[in-house]
Design goal:
Dna Ligase, domain 1, D-amino Acid Aminotransferase, Chain A, domain 1, 3 domains, four-stranded parallel β-sheet, 11 helices, 27% helix, 29% strand
Protein backbone atom coordinates (compact mmCIF):
# COMPACT_ATOMS: atom_id res chain seq x y z
CA UNK A 1 0.00 0.00 0.00
CA UNK A 2 1.34 3.46 -0.84
CA UNK A 3 2.66 5.84 1.81
CA UNK A 4 -0.16 8.18 0.86
CA UNK A 5 -2.76 5.63 1.95
CA UNK A 6 -1.14 3.46 4.65
CA UNK A 7 -3.03 0.45 5.97
CA UNK A 8 -4.43 1.32 9.38
CA UNK A 9 -3.74 -0.82 12.41
CA UNK A 10 -6.20 -1.51 15.23
CA UNK A 11 -6.15 1.49 17.53
CA UNK A 12 -5.89 3.98 14.67
CA UNK A 13 -8.40 6.83 14.42
CA UNK A 14 -10.82 7.44 11.56
CA UNK A 15 -12.17 10.95 11.20
CA UNK A 16 -15.82 11.20 10.14
CA UNK A 17 -17.25 14.36 8.60
CA UNK A 18 -20.90 14.61 9.60
CA UNK A 19 -22.62 13.69 12.82
CA UNK A 20 -25.91 12.06 11.81
CA UNK A 21 -27.08 8.49 12.17
CA UNK A 22 -24.82 7.22 9.40
CA UNK A 23 -21.78 8.63 11.20
CA UNK A 24 -23.06 7.09 14.42
CA UNK A 25 -23.36 3.63 12.87
CA UNK A 26 -19.97 3.93 11.14
CA UNK A 27 -18.36 4.72 14.49
CA UNK A 28 -20.09 1.77 16.12
CA UNK A 29 -18.82 -0.53 13.36
CA UNK A 30 -15.30 0.84 13.72
CA UNK A 31 -15.35 0.18 17.45
CA UNK A 32 -16.15 -3.48 16.80
CA UNK A 33 -12.91 -3.66 14.78
CA UNK A 34 -10.77 -1.95 17.42
CA UNK A 35 -10.62 1.35 15.58
CA UNK A 36 -11.36 4.74 17.11
CA UNK A 37 -13.43 7.50 15.54
CA UNK A 38 -13.39 11.29 15.80
CA UNK A 39 -16.54 13.00 14.50
CA UNK A 40 -16.52 16.53 13.07
CA UNK A 41 -19.90 18.25 12.80
CA UNK A 42 -21.24 21.81 13.05
CA UNK A 43 -24.35 20.69 14.98
CA UNK A 44 -23.93 20.50 18.76
CA UNK A 45 -26.72 17.92 19.07
CA UNK A 46 -25.24 15.53 16.49
CA UNK A 47 -26.28 12.00 17.45
CA UNK A 48 -22.92 10.55 16.36
CA UNK A 49 -21.19 12.52 19.14
CA UNK A 50 -22.80 10.16 21.68
CA UNK A 51 -20.82 7.09 20.58
CA UNK A 52 -17.29 8.43 20.02
CA UNK A 53 -14.46 9.39 22.32
CA UNK A 54 -13.43 12.47 20.38
CA UNK A 55 -15.54 15.11 18.68
CA UNK A 56 -15.14 18.52 17.09
CA UNK A 57 -18.10 20.87 16.87
CA UNK A 58 -17.19 23.64 14.44
CA UNK A 59 -18.28 25.03 11.06
CA UNK A 60 -17.06 23.20 7.97
CA UNK A 61 -15.28 26.38 6.90
CA UNK A 62 -13.21 26.73 10.09
CA UNK A 63 -9.75 25.88 8.79
CA UNK A 64 -8.10 26.06 12.21
CA UNK A 65 -10.57 23.52 13.61
CA UNK A 66 -10.19 21.36 10.50
CA UNK A 67 -6.39 21.37 10.88
CA UNK A 68 -6.66 20.27 14.52
CA UNK A 69 -9.10 17.56 13.47
CA UNK A 70 -6.73 16.32 10.74
CA UNK A 71 -3.83 16.19 13.19
CA UNK A 72 -5.87 13.93 15.49
CA UNK A 73 -6.88 11.30 12.90
CA UNK A 74 -5.21 8.87 10.50
CA UNK A 75 -7.73 8.97 7.64
CA UNK A 76 -10.91 10.93 6.94
CA UNK A 77 -14.23 9.78 5.50
CA UNK A 78 -17.73 11.27 5.43
CA UNK A 79 -21.24 10.17 6.23
CA UNK A 80 -23.14 12.37 3.78
CA UNK A 81 -22.51 13.70 0.31
CA UNK A 82 -23.14 17.39 0.97
CA UNK A 83 -19.94 17.99 2.89
CA UNK A 84 -18.54 21.17 1.27
CA UNK A 85 -16.03 20.26 -1.40
CA UNK A 86 -13.67 22.93 -0.06
CA UNK A 87 -13.68 21.22 3.35
CA UNK A 88 -12.81 17.83 1.90
CA UNK A 89 -10.10 19.31 -0.35
CA UNK A 90 -8.53 21.23 2.55
CA UNK A 91 -8.36 18.07 4.65
CA UNK A 92 -6.95 16.06 1.73
CA UNK A 93 -3.86 18.26 1.82
CA UNK A 94 -3.27 17.11 5.39
CA UNK A 95 -4.52 13.50 5.59
CA UNK A 96 -5.95 10.85 3.25
CA UNK A 97 -9.64 11.52 2.52
CA UNK A 98 -11.67 8.57 1.24
CA UNK A 99 -13.60 8.54 -0.99
CA UNK A 100 -11.53 11.08 -2.89
CA UNK A 101 -12.97 14.63 -2.72
CA UNK A 102 -13.13 14.61 -6.53
CA UNK A 103 -16.08 12.23 -6.17
CA UNK A 104 -18.04 15.03 -4.48
CA UNK A 105 -17.59 17.30 -7.49
CA UNK A 106 -19.52 14.74 -9.54
CA UNK A 107 -22.15 13.60 -7.09
CA UNK A 108 -23.01 16.96 -5.50
CA UNK A 109 -24.23 18.33 -8.82
CA UNK A 110 -27.16 16.45 -10.35
CA UNK A 111 -26.28 17.64 -13.86
CA UNK A 112 -22.62 16.59 -13.53
CA UNK A 113 -23.74 13.26 -12.12
CA UNK A 114 -26.21 12.58 -14.94
CA UNK A 115 -23.62 13.54 -17.56
CA UNK A 116 -21.07 11.26 -15.89
CA UNK A 117 -23.46 8.31 -15.93
CA UNK A 118 -24.50 8.96 -19.53
CA UNK A 119 -20.85 9.13 -20.64
CA UNK A 120 -20.38 5.64 -19.19
CA UNK A 121 -23.10 4.41 -21.55
CA UNK A 122 -25.53 3.78 -18.67
CA UNK A 123 -29.18 4.71 -19.18
CA UNK A 124 -30.96 7.45 -17.23
CA UNK A 125 -34.25 9.27 -17.65
CA UNK A 126 -34.01 11.97 -20.35
CA UNK A 127 -32.72 15.21 -18.79
CA UNK A 128 -31.72 18.76 -19.64
CA UNK A 129 -30.11 21.67 -17.74
CA UNK A 130 -32.09 24.67 -16.51
CA UNK A 131 -30.16 27.82 -15.66
CA UNK A 132 -32.15 30.53 -17.39
CA UNK A 133 -35.60 31.20 -18.81
CA UNK A 134 -34.32 30.31 -22.27
CA UNK A 135 -32.86 27.00 -21.03
CA UNK A 136 -36.10 26.24 -19.19
CA UNK A 137 -38.12 26.74 -22.37
CA UNK A 138 -35.73 24.55 -24.39
CA UNK A 139 -35.68 21.86 -21.68
CA UNK A 140 -39.47 21.77 -21.40
CA UNK A 141 -39.80 21.39 -25.16
CA UNK A 142 -37.17 18.63 -25.23
CA UNK A 143 -38.30 16.66 -22.15
CA UNK A 144 -42.06 17.20 -22.30
CA UNK A 145 -44.42 16.36 -19.44
CA UNK A 146 -44.90 14.98 -16.93
CA UNK A 147 -41.45 15.88 -15.64
CA UNK A 148 -39.60 16.73 -12.45
CA UNK A 149 -37.43 19.80 -11.94
CA UNK A 150 -34.68 19.41 -9.33
CA UNK A 151 -32.09 21.80 -7.96
CA UNK A 152 -28.64 20.79 -9.11
CA UNK A 153 -27.31 20.92 -5.54
CA UNK A 154 -28.34 20.16 -1.95
CA UNK A 155 -31.56 18.27 -2.61
CA UNK A 156 -32.44 15.06 -0.76
CA UNK A 157 -35.57 13.26 0.51
CA UNK A 158 -37.69 15.17 -2.00
CA UNK A 159 -36.35 18.59 -1.06
CA UNK A 160 -35.47 21.02 -3.85
CA UNK A 161 -37.76 19.51 -6.48
CA UNK A 162 -41.17 20.02 -8.01
CA UNK A 163 -43.38 18.01 -10.35
CA UNK A 164 -44.56 19.40 -13.69
CA UNK A 165 -47.80 17.88 -14.98
CA UNK A 166 -47.91 19.90 -18.21
CA UNK A 167 -45.30 21.92 -20.07
CA UNK A 168 -47.05 25.20 -19.25
CA UNK A 169 -46.39 24.60 -15.54
CA UNK A 170 -42.60 24.57 -15.94
CA UNK A 171 -42.01 28.24 -15.06
CA UNK A 172 -44.14 28.01 -11.90
CA UNK A 173 -42.29 24.85 -10.82
CA UNK A 174 -38.93 26.53 -11.33
CA UNK A 175 -40.12 29.49 -9.26
CA UNK A 176 -41.17 27.02 -6.53
CA UNK A 177 -37.56 25.84 -6.13
CA UNK A 178 -36.25 29.41 -6.06
CA UNK A 179 -35.12 29.61 -9.70
CA UNK A 180 -31.93 27.86 -8.62
CA UNK A 181 -29.74 26.16 -11.24
CA UNK A 182 -31.65 22.96 -11.93
CA UNK A 183 -32.08 19.87 -14.04
CA UNK A 184 -35.33 18.87 -15.74
CA UNK A 185 -35.97 15.12 -15.91
CA UNK A 186 -38.76 13.26 -17.64
CA UNK A 187 -40.99 11.49 -15.14
CA UNK A 188 -40.38 7.75 -15.36
CA UNK A 189 -43.41 5.45 -14.89
CA UNK A 190 -41.31 2.91 -13.04
CA UNK A 191 -42.41 -0.53 -11.92
CA UNK A 192 -40.30 -0.45 -8.78
CA UNK A 193 -37.31 1.31 -7.22
CA UNK A 194 -34.17 -0.62 -6.34
CA UNK A 195 -30.70 0.15 -5.06
CA UNK A 196 -27.38 -1.55 -5.71
CA UNK A 197 -25.04 -1.37 -2.72
CA UNK A 198 -21.37 -2.13 -3.23
CA UNK A 199 -18.02 -1.68 -1.53
CA UNK A 200 -14.80 -1.01 -3.41
CA UNK A 201 -11.44 -1.53 -1.72
CA UNK A 202 -8.17 0.30 -2.17
CA UNK A 203 -6.89 -2.34 -4.62
CA UNK A 204 -9.99 -1.97 -6.80
CA UNK A 205 -11.82 -5.11 -5.65
CA UNK A 206 -15.61 -4.76 -5.50
CA UNK A 207 -18.00 -6.68 -3.26
CA UNK A 208 -21.74 -6.12 -3.70
CA UNK A 209 -24.76 -6.94 -1.61
CA UNK A 210 -27.88 -8.42 -3.16
CA UNK A 211 -30.18 -5.98 -4.90
CA UNK A 212 -32.53 -4.06 -2.58
CA UNK A 213 -36.14 -3.14 -3.36
CA UNK A 214 -37.36 0.16 -1.92
CA UNK A 215 -40.68 1.86 -1.23
CA UNK A 216 -40.78 5.61 -0.62
CA UNK A 217 -43.44 7.58 1.21
CA UNK A 218 -43.56 11.38 0.81
CA UNK A 219 -40.20 11.16 -1.02
CA UNK A 220 -38.53 9.52 2.02
CA UNK A 221 -37.47 5.88 2.12
CA UNK A 222 -40.13 3.97 4.05
CA UNK A 223 -39.30 0.30 3.53
CA UNK A 224 -36.55 -1.84 2.01
CA UNK A 225 -36.73 -5.54 1.21
CA UNK A 226 -34.03 -7.99 0.22
CA UNK A 227 -33.84 -9.74 -2.13
CA UNK A 228 -35.61 -7.51 -4.64
CA UNK A 229 -38.39 -9.18 -6.60
CA UNK A 230 -36.74 -8.87 -10.00
CA UNK A 231 -35.32 -11.47 -12.39
CA UNK A 232 -31.83 -12.63 -11.49
CA UNK A 233 -30.43 -11.30 -14.76
CA UNK A 234 -31.77 -7.81 -14.04
CA UNK A 235 -30.35 -7.89 -10.50
CA UNK A 236 -27.01 -8.85 -12.00
CA UNK A 237 -27.16 -5.92 -14.40
CA UNK A 238 -27.71 -3.53 -11.47
CA UNK A 239 -24.59 -4.82 -9.73
CA UNK A 240 -22.60 -4.46 -12.97
CA UNK A 241 -23.76 -0.83 -13.19
CA UNK A 242 -22.71 -0.08 -9.61
CA UNK A 243 -19.35 -1.76 -10.17
CA UNK A 244 -18.75 0.23 -13.36
CA UNK A 245 -19.60 3.51 -11.62
CA UNK A 246 -17.36 2.74 -8.63
CA UNK A 247 -14.44 1.90 -10.91
CA UNK A 248 -14.90 5.03 -13.03
CA UNK A 249 -14.83 7.17 -9.88
CA UNK A 250 -11.77 5.30 -8.49
CA UNK A 251 -14.02 4.99 -5.48
CA UNK A 252 -12.95 3.66 -2.08
CA UNK A 253 -15.69 2.76 0.37
CA UNK A 254 -19.37 1.87 0.14
CA UNK A 255 -21.65 3.53 -2.38
CA UNK A 256 -25.24 3.04 -3.44
CA UNK A 257 -26.75 3.46 -6.90
CA UNK A 258 -30.48 4.14 -6.93
CA UNK A 259 -32.27 2.78 -9.99
CA UNK A 260 -35.72 2.54 -11.54
CA UNK A 261 -37.01 -0.72 -12.99
CA UNK A 262 -39.00 0.22 -16.08
CA UNK A 263 -41.24 -2.17 -18.02
CA UNK A 264 -41.38 -1.49 -21.75
CA UNK A 265 -42.78 -3.72 -24.50
CA UNK A 266 -42.87 -6.70 -22.19
CA UNK A 267 -39.25 -6.27 -21.10
CA UNK A 268 -37.65 -4.70 -18.02
CA UNK A 269 -34.71 -2.36 -18.03
CA UNK A 270 -32.82 -0.24 -15.52
CA UNK A 271 -32.42 3.54 -15.37
CA UNK A 272 -29.99 5.15 -12.92
CA UNK A 273 -31.64 7.76 -10.74
CA UNK A 274 -28.90 8.86 -8.34
CA UNK A 275 -25.51 7.92 -6.92
CA UNK A 276 -25.03 8.11 -3.15
CA UNK A 277 -21.27 8.21 -2.37
CA UNK A 278 -21.65 6.84 1.16
CA UNK A 279 -23.33 4.17 3.21
CA UNK A 280 -27.04 4.31 2.42
CA UNK A 281 -30.39 4.17 4.21
CA UNK A 282 -31.51 1.23 2.06
CA UNK A 283 -28.49 -0.72 3.32
CA UNK A 284 -29.48 -0.61 6.99
CA UNK A 285 -30.86 -4.14 6.62
CA UNK A 286 -27.27 -5.37 6.59
CA UNK A 287 -26.88 -4.64 10.31
CA UNK A 288 -29.11 -7.60 11.20
CA UNK A 289 -29.64 -9.40 7.90
CA UNK A 290 -26.07 -10.00 6.71
CA UNK A 291 -22.91 -11.44 8.20
CA UNK A 292 -21.15 -8.09 7.68
CA UNK A 293 -22.89 -4.71 7.62
CA UNK A 294 -22.42 -1.95 5.07
CA UNK A 295 -20.87 0.13 7.86
CA UNK A 296 -18.18 -2.42 8.62
CA UNK A 297 -17.48 -2.80 4.90
CA UNK A 298 -16.97 0.95 4.56
CA UNK A 299 -14.63 1.03 7.56
CA UNK A 300 -12.66 -1.92 6.16
CA UNK A 301 -12.31 -0.18 2.79
CA UNK A 302 -11.08 3.17 4.09
CA UNK A 303 -8.75 1.43 6.56
CA UNK A 304 -7.17 -0.54 3.72
CA UNK A 305 -8.35 -3.87 5.11
CA UNK A 306 -9.71 -6.86 3.22
CA UNK A 307 -13.37 -6.58 2.30
CA UNK A 308 -15.72 -9.20 3.72
CA UNK A 309 -17.87 -11.50 1.57
CA UNK A 310 -21.21 -10.95 3.28
CA UNK A 311 -23.89 -13.60 3.30
CA UNK A 312 -27.59 -12.76 3.67
CA UNK A 313 -29.20 -14.45 6.67
CA UNK A 314 -32.72 -14.76 5.27
CA UNK A 315 -35.38 -12.61 3.65
CA UNK A 316 -35.00 -9.18 5.20
CA UNK A 317 -37.25 -6.17 5.67
CA UNK A 318 -36.19 -2.78 7.04
CA UNK A 319 -38.69 -0.04 7.97
CA UNK A 320 -37.67 3.52 8.80
CA UNK A 321 -39.10 5.24 11.86
CA UNK A 322 -39.95 8.73 10.64
CA UNK A 323 -40.83 11.58 12.97
CA UNK A 324 -43.25 10.63 15.72
CA UNK A 325 -43.31 6.97 14.62
CA UNK A 326 -40.37 6.54 16.97
CA UNK A 327 -42.73 7.05 19.90
CA UNK A 328 -43.86 3.43 19.36
CA UNK A 329 -40.41 2.26 20.48
CA UNK A 330 -41.68 0.29 23.48
CA UNK A 331 -44.23 -1.58 21.36
CA UNK A 332 -41.60 -2.31 18.72
CA UNK A 333 -39.14 -3.62 21.28
CA UNK A 334 -41.74 -6.14 22.43
CA UNK A 335 -42.44 -7.38 18.89
CA UNK A 336 -41.03 -10.87 18.30
CA UNK A 337 -38.25 -10.94 15.72
CA UNK A 338 -37.88 -7.15 15.52
CA UNK A 339 -34.42 -5.57 15.80
CA UNK A 340 -34.87 -1.94 16.84
CA UNK A 341 -32.26 0.73 16.15
CA UNK A 342 -32.82 4.17 17.69
CA UNK A 343 -30.53 7.03 16.70
CA UNK A 344 -30.66 9.06 19.91
CA UNK A 345 -32.05 12.17 18.25
CA UNK A 346 -33.76 14.30 20.85
CA UNK A 347 -36.59 15.86 18.87
CA UNK A 348 -38.89 13.93 16.50
CA UNK A 349 -40.00 16.12 13.61
CA UNK A 350 -42.04 15.34 10.49
CA UNK A 351 -39.75 13.79 7.89
CA UNK A 352 -36.87 13.24 10.33
CA UNK A 353 -35.33 9.76 10.44
CA UNK A 354 -35.35 8.72 14.09
CA UNK A 355 -34.53 5.02 13.82
CA UNK A 356 -35.33 1.84 11.96
CA UNK A 357 -36.60 -1.68 12.58
CA UNK A 358 -35.32 -4.80 10.85
CA UNK A 359 -36.88 -8.23 10.59
CA UNK A 360 -35.24 -11.34 9.19
CA UNK A 361 -37.45 -14.15 7.90
CA UNK A 362 -36.50 -17.71 6.95
CA UNK A 363 -36.06 -18.33 3.24
CA UNK A 364 -39.31 -19.62 1.74
Amino acid sequence: MSAKFPVLKPGATIGILGGGQLGRMLAQAAGKLGLRCHVYSPEADSCAFDVVGEKTCAPYGDEAALARFAAAVDVVTYEFENVPGETASFLARLKPVLPDPKVLATTQDRLAEKNFVAELGIATAPFAPVGSAAELAAAAEKIGAPAVIKTRRLGYDGKGQATIQKVGDAAAAWNAIGRAPAILERFVPFEREVSALAARGRAGEVVAYELIENVHRDHILHRSRVPAEVPAALAGQAIVIATKIAAALSYIGVLAVELFVVAEAGKRRLLVNEIAPRVHNSGHWTLDGATVSQFEQHIRAVAGWALARPQRLGRVEMVNLIGHEVEDWAKLLAEPGASVHLYGKREPRPGRKMGHVTKVFPES
